[in-house]
């Protein structure tokens, strides 16, 4: 690159146009850019915070052309998923997320969480596939495999979107949600089956809401746990739009679904937002079209189409009947530089209407360009907080360095800090939530270059104001400790609990607080509740008490801080040296071998971090490699020192040497290292060993899922590097991925339980090298478990209203672990709850009747469902006993008193109102004499 890094990254944001221009120019002699539609710019250093994907123009090879572009910093080279994420942006894909205000956390789409899954055996991390909404945008899903649900009941088979089979099954199902708004709908897709989906929590049907429900165009209904998956027996119900989605069964890599869609009339236009970019002076006619679909309307319903404002747009289709094509054209001749917004209204009369938005962006013919590195900004801040945000204004072309610009907005919650500049520079403003209620806020900011023909540029800034999150910090270990001067750092930790609506998804950080120059916490912290691990390093602190803090703050609101106080007591310590080990040793064979070792040296006492020290070997049999400009055997402060053993002229047998450690100018030995070397006379035999003696795993019986595993075969001896070995296993459920290897290398295999019954299976994988007489083995155990089932009858033991009830559900089968219990549908009687950790239904039933609910037990990646039928009976009480109790006697037990109180005002005691309510409810079952006796005590109020 022709310029230093700070020219391209002048502040907090990289100058992407400058990077693209100069990087492309450097390669222009070797690349014909006219033959390409996209360019990946790859850099050998970090840019600002991130890598980027988008579009831009380059004037190369005879013309100015638009390109898909990515700017990839060096910190993504081990994150292939991030590269895919930025390429997605260059192709026009936006972020996806969920309904909880964050953007980069949904593992169901590489356009959200991009590189969260480490690839076994590599240093790479990847994400999952693009979701079905994005694949449909890019044209990867053919129309024949795209199901649009109309009102009624449909039964379809949905195939996996990752490497789908050529069987004609649908790859995406779209269900309109008209009551949420125009052009909003659900997408259904199958995820979690093999390949890049291997790291997901399981296989099933995932639901995204499109056009609403979050801060991005595509939002997963549930987050990263298995709550996002619909598996056979589960259903999703949207009562607002009258939609029920049921997963009936799994069919290979597909799932059979039943969709019940209420007949809500809706006009649907495919891709209702269109953008055309042209250069001023171009004389062209752009023709485009979209499919109009009438949902929930009688057959033959007519619709009309017309433009809603004057401009360069012409509607070519005045109307149609049912599903038909809408066509229009835009003439660009005579249009000055600027932005032209047009709309077409598609109207189905009483059934509703929808608009097609058409935007024409005319660029100035001058080569001067104006832009920003991020035209859309988003953030989430806790109510009451504020946060700065930065962006880069990018100006290119002749005169760019002297072109002035301004950025303005009318949004009251945005305060400009730096809203004007000259040339490429940074803009800064503050988002302030003061006075704002929790919710979504969107502001439009306008970037102008006065005195030029450049059209104003609109930027969108979205702010989600979150409900407050409260801190609760639980200490683990001491918050006060004692260390000597120059001592090694001491580790400690605290537990941070977040509560509140967003407590489970809030990102937080731990940093050094006031006076805490010796406390170094981990950064950043986790999402939701988690641990902060930190170390106290006394270094050169003077003896005495040193108070400090660890400051915790939320990413969504840095002003909400929590300071953890800590005290370090530093005690006086004499000048000394501590070694990481006091004994080193090695074995060599032959005088040509090289033997070296190292030790970590920690000075202690005052000035330990800057004190110079030296190592000395009186016999000169241990040599020290040169380290920088220092003497070979001298270092400063805590440091490693490496030494090489002189093997020449050593006879076979043991040789012992001593390393003395002293101050650089001192003569007193402060520490000693004893080094031993064994020189062997004959060859060292070649042997094989395993890195671990055994492995174990679990799989469900009959499951198509396989489990990979590996160990390392370790070869030692004079000929270890060239030893050839073979591996074998006898069990049919083990498949070796390679049956031979050389030297120290991995041994990998795959387990399958597809043909196994539940039980324990054990096999020995043997490795041998017959020419060396070497062998080793690893024992592999596989527990095959039956699919989990909730045992017992659907009809549960009856409960009595007012009496304590307890019934524990029991799970049979499943993997090792503890099940989490919940209700998949229905409800328990009021007063009864299902404990999530134990499966125990308990409490005091507060109403009588028959109740039906579906219990769900989730253990590992498996889910079990069981319908529960529970009846609550009312106890039979003798009227005489009730009267006696009311008049001051003690003839009823606590359950009966509670039951009567539940009949009336539920105030925790028996009174006349409770008995009157019971008498009215029991009137049909009482005799005339019993009713008369009760009425005598209760008065006229007892008559029903």
Provide a short characterization of the protein structure.
Helix content is 8%, strand content 48%. By secondary structure, the chain is mostly beta strands. The longest helix is centred in the N-terminal third of the chain and has 12 residues, at 16-27.
* Number of structural domains: 8
DSSP strand content: over 45%
Helix content: under 10%
Main beta sheet: strand number and arrangement? 7 strands, mixed
The global form is globular
| Number of DSSP strand runs | 69
3D structure, described in words:
- The protein is mainly beta.
- The chain has 8 domains: 78-261, no CATH class; 266-363, Immunoglobulin-like (Sandwich), CATH 2.60.40.10; 369-466, Immunoglobulin-like; 470-571, Immunoglobulin-like; 576-680, Immunoglobulin-like; 687-785, Immunoglobulin-like; 789-873, Immunoglobulins (Immunoglobulin-like); 879-942, no CATH class.
- Strands 4, 7, 9, 10, 11, 12 and 13 form a 7-stranded mixed β-sheet that branches. Strands 18-25-24-20-22 form a 5-stranded mixed β-sheet, with no helix packed on it.
- Strand 68 and strand 69 form a beta hairpin.
